[in-house]
Design goal:
CATH architecture of the largest domain: 2-Layer Sandwich
Helix content: 25-40%
Distance between the termini: 30 Å
């Protein structure tokens, strides 16, 4: 069955894997999911990501989740903001601070998928995809 909200599906898979204590989560790959995985890696929320079966019909991206010294997850929460039924667009001055600056917001803009910090620095707005803390 096709998924109506692929980004929401990705976030739910990560949320479920973190709560179950899994080390790796496999997600069907798309371009935007790879960009979100890149941001999660750059911001230190996951250890690494890799794409398997790039030449096949359904490539898969595998995220290696990150845990602290007592196996507490680095990702405390994920929230989908802009949904297929209700798109949320923000200007550069309206980008929310997640958990008082302790988390990140991921936006898709004309210049690609970026974090809230990068959007504020470059003074661009866009569609607010999700928040992670």
């Amino acid at each position: 069955m096709p998924v109506n909200d692929p980004i929401g599906d990705m976030l739910t898979r990560v949320r479920n894997a973190v709560s179950a204590g899994h080390d790796i989560v496999a997600i069907p790959s798309t371009k935007i999911k790879l960009q979100i995985a890149r941001i999660l890696k750059e911001e230190g929320y996951i250890s690494r990501y890799e794409v398997e079966g790039e030449d096949t019909l359904t490539p898969i991206v595998k995220l290696t989740l990150k845990y602290g010294p007592r196996h507490q997850p680095v990702i405390r929460g994920l929230k989908r903001i802009s949904k297929p039924g209700r798109r949320v667009y923000v200007g550069c001055g309206e980008i929310p601070r997640v958990q008082g600056g302790m988390g990140i917001a991921i936006l898709t803009t004309a210049s690609g998928v970026i974090t809230d910090k990068t959007a504020r620095l470059t003074k661009v707005g866009g569609e607010l995809l999700c928040t992670i803390w």
